[in-house]
Amino acid sequence: MSLKIVAVTACIAGIAHTYMAQANLKKYAEKSGYEIKVETQGSMGIENRLSQEDIDNADVVIFAVDTTVSGRDRFDGKKILELGTSAVVKDGKSAIEKAAALVSGN
Amino acid sequence: MQIIDLISQKNIVMNLDAKTEQEAIKKLSIKLFENDYINNAGGFYDDVLERESYTTTGIGNGIAIPHGKSDYVNESTVIFAKTTEGIEWNSLDGSKVRIIFLMAVNPRDKGKEHLQALAKIASRLMDDHFVRAIKEANTTEEVIQILSK
């Protein structure tokens, strides 16, 4: 099954966990052959901002955040998996699996 | 800016002797003070511990990345350390820490260069090859070589 995932990562200090979570989501999505785009909301501001088209076309959304997602209303009506950044840093594989399960309704 | 531009040779400690997380952060703060990257070791230490109190920075795999955005930082940098023994750090996977990247961030930094280099370190810590190489490195030169890639 091919999946399109979009994600937002954000941590408290915006220095490290935001970017570790981004890297780990990409790593495990790619291992499963899924497409993924990750927007980071860190101390450098918003980078790799998702377009509304990216969001509309995605099968599922992952929020790996310890704080509020900026522009959360862009994701209204989507299937959203919300986790802390630490959970994603610790186990990126299960984050991706959970997102896939959300799509298939398991 | 590459990782290696951020982490000068002076900021690589190969045999950090510390029994606890607090002792490790304190010793590395003093080293940053001696190297002139911060202007108050105690103040910086407190700022790092405050961040540590929110969630652990023991990211697993024997690695910790304590960090502080602190007014006592003169110039943003990273200090790298390998410890002589495993340190209890309340890590995500329960592992004891042997590798520390202590990040010092100047909140008044105008440009993004330092933050970009720090983000690069953070994301490379998710790369199994990078982690393995850094764990196997035994000399300052080897560490520099890995961080230069």
TrEMBL record, chain A:
Keywords: Kinase, Phosphoprotein, Phosphotransferase system, Sugar transport, Transferase, Transport. GO terms for molecular function: kinase activity; protein-N(PI)-phosphohistidine-fructose phosphotransferase system transporter activity; protein-phosphocysteine-sugar phosphotransferase activity. The keyword Transport applies. Residues 5-101 form the PTS EIIB type-2 domain. Pfam families: PTS_IIB (PF02302). InterPro entries: Bacterial_PTS_Sugar_Transport, PTS_EIIB-like_sf, PTS_EIIB_2, PTS_EIIB_2/3, PTS_IIB_fruc. PROSITE patterns: PTS_EIIB_TYPE_2. One of its GO terms (cellular component) is plasma membrane. GO terms for biological process: phosphoenolpyruvate-dependent sugar phosphotransferase system. This is PTS fructose transporter subunit IIB. It comes from Sporolactobacillus shoreae.
UniProtKB/TrEMBL annotation, chain B:
GO terms for molecular function: protein-N(PI)-phosphohistidine-sugar phosphotransferase activity. It comes from the Bacteria. InterPro entries: PTrfase/Anion_transptr (IPR016152), PTS_EIIA_type-2_dom (IPR002178), PTS_IIA_fruc (IPR004715), PTS_SugarTrans_NitroReg (IPR051541). Gene3D superfamilies: Mannitol-specific EII, Chain A. Keywords: Phosphoprotein, Phosphotransferase system, Sugar transport, Transferase, Transport. CDD domains: PTS_IIA_fru. Pfam families: PTS_EIIA_2. GO terms for biological process: phosphoenolpyruvate-dependent sugar phosphotransferase system. PROSITE patterns: PTS_EIIA_TYPE_2, PTS_EIIA_TYPE_2_HIS. It is found in: Cytoplasm. One of its GO terms (cellular component) is membrane. Residues 5-149 form the PTS EIIA type-2 domain. PANTHER family: PTS SYSTEM FRUCTOSE-LIKE EIIA COMPONENT, PTS SYSTEM FRUCTOSE-LIKE EIIA COMPONENT-RELATED. NCBIfam families: fruA (TIGR00848). This is PTS mannose transporter subunit IIAB. It comes from Sporolactobacillus shoreae.
